[in-house]
């Protein structure tokens, strides 16, 4: 949970590379961590890697179809 907080802090500072790094670390520590997938998807999107962002957004939906903000974030990527 601390790694995700660090990822959010980095994202708040627009340091998306660092946010992705912390999200990756959180996922390595706790596989299947939904919020970490979500954060990494945003980081990948901001870093211009739409394919990886899409994969992570879809993984969030696959794991929890009720995680509703993910649908909007996925759609926003293509607008």
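Sequence proposed for the structure above (79 residues):
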């Amino acid at each position: 949970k601390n790694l995700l907080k660090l990822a959010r802090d980095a994202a708040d500072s627009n340091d998306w590379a660092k946010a992705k790094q912390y999200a990756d670390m959180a996922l390595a520590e706790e596989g299947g961590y939904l919020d970490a997938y979500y954060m990494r998807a945003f980081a990948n999107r901001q870093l211009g890697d739409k394919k990886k962002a899409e994969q992570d957004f879809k993984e969030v939906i696959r794991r929890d179809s009720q995680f509703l903000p993910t649908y909007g974030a996925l759609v926003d990527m293509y607008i």
